[in-house]
Amino acid sequence: MQAWRVHTTGEPREAMRLEEVPEPVPGEGEVRLRVLAANVNFPDALLTRGQYQIRPPLPFTPGVEVCGETADGRRVIANPSLPHGGFAEYVTAPAHALLPAPDALDDAEAAALHIGYQTGWFGLHRRARIRSGETLLVHAAAGGVGSAAVQLGKAAGATVIGVVGGKAKARTAEQLGCDLVVDRTAEDLVARVKEFTGGRGADVVYDPVGGDAYTASAKCVAFEGRIVVVGFAGGTVPAPALNHALVKNYSILGLHWGLYAAKDPAAVLACHTELTRLAAEGAVRPLVSERVPLAGAADAVQRVADGTTTGRLVVVPSLPDGGAR
Questions:
Q1: What is the mean pLDDT of residues 29-41?
Q2: CA 149/CA 151 separation, integer angstroms
Q3: With 243 labelled, which of 79, 97, 123, 321 sits at a CA distance of 20 to 30 A?
Q4: Residue 236 belongs to what domain range?
């Protein structure tokens, strides 16, 4: 079979090589899946660079979430067992963690439903306890992680402010249903949020960016608001001023979805059931901006790493080379 492998860590375009390798052999408690679609995530770039909290042995195949087909024909969502990641024709995955792919979504959409949407759901509902009528601010609202939070916020009855970088991403955020879109490259984010909320600020801030985005969040979060720290795609890990949190009465909440998968798998299954319901009702649908063939996986990971993409890029092995759409 064909699979992308990393022999030496580095930037995705240089480090990832498409090779002919044997199909992976399932270990104890694992199953082999034919990959129908593999979603591209920012952690794939971190894995390739050797910067992720998990460091699989070299050589390895990146790709942390797939929609795949079991030997008996079931369509499922899975997190592949590294080092045999999803940018390949076949993967292995823990049998107990397989989730049924929602009928309302195609393969590429189903592949993109899992990590980003579960992270959004746990961040907004389990950590921030968002309530209908509250104001939610989402950084990188046109990206894969941000667009999921926008949809989930709207489904929860929140007023959603989407923060983006550039006019093209602003149009995407508007189409997603954001009640206010702020282009951080051309507008004063804090001033716009304060104006829109009558000076109150955002009740919940969803931040997968870090750096300057977090600094702005602290300036425009409401009294008793909650900042959910999801990641650091901006490349800088902020050092929160806890005295500021004290005098302004807001909470800083960390979110690592993988810990729920390890410590509370029943909650992950319940979340998937809820996401499946929302997908069936049309309340959420992963924003798949591009489906690329297996040959385009390294370029897709690099583009996600560079922050130049909108929505989700999904690798579909059955697409012919050059068949991106």
A1: 97
A2: 5
A3: 123
A4: 119-259
